[in-house]
Amino acid sequence: MPRWLPRAIVLALALVACFQLGSWAFHQLIGLLVNILIAFFLALAIEPAVARMSARGMRRGLATFLVFLGVFIAAAGFVVLLGSMLAGQIVDMVEGFPRYLDRVIDSINTTFHTKLSRLAIQDSLLHSDWLQKYVQNSATGVLDVSATVLGGLFRLLTVGLFSFYFAADGPRLRRALCSVLPPAKQSEVLRAWEIAVAKTGGYLYSRGLMALVSGIAHYVVFAVLDVPYAPALAVWVGLVSQFIPTIGTYLAGALPMLIAFTVDPWYALYVLGFVVIYQQFENYVLQPKLTARTVDIHPAVAFGSVIAGTALLGAVGALIAIPAVATLQAFLGAYVKRYALTEGAEGAESATPRRSRRVRPPGLR
User: Fold this and answer.
1) pTM (2 decimals)?
2) Which of these, 137, 215, 313, 364, could form a disulfide with 317 (CB 3.0-4.6 Å)?
């Protein structure tokens, strides 16, 4: 046996053991790592406000606390107002559900010449096996729901704590990171950090503004059509359509269409038509104007990044995919070397004219 073989076997076994240990530790800590990633992007989003207050002489920790307090008050007030409004409307919806069901059944009977009956449908549902199994599973799953709620609260607290420290100790964190890098790389890291702050903050602010415009526009349509629960439905459409990228508008329009169908089937078609028209207006008029200086990326790239982010991290990946890709695009645009087009490429370019504009990142202006 060669002398090196036992040592090589021991080294290979040690490497396999280290890989297994690292893989186990990574799978155990994946939840914490995702929370830290969410907290990091939240800290980037509030970084401009904290930096502006800190530049006026306020301590950075106090500025971060005030920003968090303002966000918490706004979110709590929104939840309380929306919850109180939805509570009464949900009660009215439950009380009026038989009337809505009668309208739907009458429309189906008139359109398809059927003879459905609400009493027969209710009787078949109450005596169905799947409903009894659902009730039994719901009764046994109360503890699971409580554990899920507590886990969600703990996760929210973890994200808030990490995001507070990332925002409050942002300069110290950057100095600690740059201290282990060569001087030539420190400026690159700082420039990438500035780009990430600008893109993430701009993405959230532009989405919030578009959610407000979308909610107001849909509320006007719902009020004109006299659709029940117009304020709650407008808030629902505004939030879901903007914070679920690409397909959020169509997902958000499903609930108003269902409510409008209970009033008049034609109203559901009107709501669908407005949702489609507003989506085109938002894609080609509103969104380019609001995101021209923040997250100006191609729609196909945005759609692909959302799909990739969802596949990797689920709903969290879908939310942070666009600002992450926008940051990467801006960083590459600043450092990728570009060359003059050849004669053949210029001819192809003139055959398919389009207008393009390169936006420099904040650090290069």
Assistant:
1) 0.64
2) 313
